């Protein structure tokens, strides 16, 4: 039995669900295929930070690397606007709080780095400005007096990662999209002017046809590319997060650090979420290939390092019990810029992944919806072209 769709989307994380919604609301006949359950992987286990400033991993390698990473700023700016409007546009109760973000500094070197970073971001149009110790005392008195300055970006904030992906899935269904969970894509091949997609269980695979295919498969992106004979290079990262017991409302901002890995925020129900890119251990097979189906393992040194930096800047955390720590796997790319655009050598196939794809998911989805419709995306995607690595 075969069925024909305008677009088949592979992956039911935040990106796949947002893309399905955006295509369906334009009238596209779209099918989303998810191997497991909606939001089961990175999209449901991340920190929910909406960070539009360059993150620590983008500035730790020096200013040239920061300048390169800043080429994604148009996607950040789109995302900042989109997130603010998503509850209205989707008619779903997506929890979004854009109450501002602070990237903090404890040393003169970190202050200089923040000043240079802020200058780069402002040149791209991000509303990010330096505040001094007096400014910190005014808007973030909860921070330690070791913090001497910060970059303050008013549009940053948080969204609830547990509910945002499913909200997009419901909006997609309401707009007419089809969604199949427990439906793994097993083969992809070019057929006529479109694509043939084999999906489903071992016992009852089904062949589906589509004019266009969208890969929204997170850490499985490279594997999907291999199925199509295309090179989609990504670097997998296993990361960990910790959540504490509830506290009375204290922290209104997303807090990051210019000198180390930290993201810190207070969820609406009062728990403090602590992360920022501390590694967990990705399991690998005998050949060294990462096994994304096995849960990464927590690293005690990461737990300790994350707790140390968090308590250093937020003294009130000392004595607040941690409820649980968990791990998840995500992707970055060698140049820290996302992959967004046509799959090289595969007409009618498009991909997006890389970096903070929770924050940037709505911008990626907007670009993908334009590409499948044959429109020029609003944002110039040349810096994110998946073919750039092949081109050297
Ligand atoms: C611990 C942690 C904290 C993070 N914190 C943040 C943060 O604060 N802010 C931020 O912006 N980003 C953060 N990230 C990154 C962010 O979570 C990811 O970039 C984002 O969720 C990726 O979304 P996605 O939809 O592209 O991928 P995923 O959520 O991974 O979804 C991909 C889906 O594709 C499916 N799939 C794969 N192969 C197949 C197949 N063959 N057939 C069918 N389906 C398939 C998978 O089952 C999966 O559900 C964090 C990541 C981690 C792990």
Explain how this protein is built.
It contains 11 helices and 19 strands. The chain is an alpha+beta fold. A hairpin with a 6-residue loop joins strand 18 and strand 19. It is globular and about 65 Å long. The termini are far apart. 50% of the residues are buried. The model has no long low-confidence stretch (mean pLDDT 96). Bound molecules: flavin-adenine dinucleotide (FAD). Flavin-adenine dinucleotide (FAD) binds next to helix 1, helix 2, strand 13 and strand 17. The site of flavin-adenine dinucleotide has 38 residues, from helix 1, helix 2, strand 13 and strand 17.
Short description:
By secondary structure, the protein is α+β, with helices and mostly antiparallel strands. The chain is built from eleven helices and 19 strands.
Describe how the helices and strands are arranged.
Blueprint: E1 2-10, H1 14-24, E2 30-33, H2 42-45, E3 49-50, H3 56-59, H4 63-69, H5 73-90, E4 96-97, E5 101-105, H6 108-123, E6 128-132, H7 133-139, E7 149-153, E8 157-159, H8 161-174, E9 178-180, E10 185-191, E11 194-200, E12 205-215, H9 221-228, E13 235-246, E14 254-257, E15 263-266, E16 271-275, H10 300-313, E17 322-332, E18 339-342, E19 349-353, H11 361-372
Parallel strand pairs: 1-2, 1-12, 2-9, 5-14, 12-19
Antiparallel strand pairs: 3-8, 4-8, 5-7, 6-7, 10-11, 11-12, 13-16, 13-17, 14-15, 15-16, 18-19
The structure holds flavin-adenine dinucleotide (FAD).
